[in-house]
Write a structure and sequence with these properties.
Layout (H helix, E strand, L loop, with lengths): L36 H13 L3 H8 L3 H10 L10 H14 L5 H5 L23 H12 L6 H13 L3 H13 L7 H15 L19
Amino acid sequence: MTPFHDVNAPHGTPPQVPRPRRDARGRPGRSGQPWGDEDYERLVALVREGHDVPAIADALERTEGAVTPRLRALLPPEQRAILADRVLPTLRGHVREQPDYPWAEVMVRLPPPAPVVQRVVHHAGVAGLEPALLVEVAWALLHCETADAGAVHEVCDEVVGRGLDHELTARLVSALLCRVPPATPDEARYAATARLDRARGLTSSRSRYDDHPWDHGW
């Protein structure tokens, strides 16, 4: 990065700047008008000569508020975030070191991209379980008669929330098809879904299967 420069470094006394024209409202004569290449060329020349911001604004017949951000815009992108009191001396150093300072090219340069920060979120509890393990835990809880209803509810909600309910239901269906008396495939699918609904505290039209012999002892 180019080092900062001292605005007070000896470079001769800048020439006097005539007082600007003022409009009826007391504003500088060119206040609010678009900036052209000639304005920027003159701005760079005034900076090189050693003028301060008020004198530059007077010479350009602009307000100081219009001049200040343009001084910053003339800096290389990596220096545009420096403190306000360092903008003018730093720019002056550049334009004095480079008689043909490429201000137009510098102004269109983009700042370097911000660093990409990838935040790793570590989930704890049920939310931190890997998918396969989550299904295993849900399967075990659904087969445990003494399991806490709140824990079963939480785990089954997490299963459904992650879109893993089809895997859990498939395991329940497979178990029902092996029961005696066996369920038909359709009955098994309905009953498995009803069991998952009940575990989540939901009512289901499939509840007619709740009292079937193969629905006990999950």
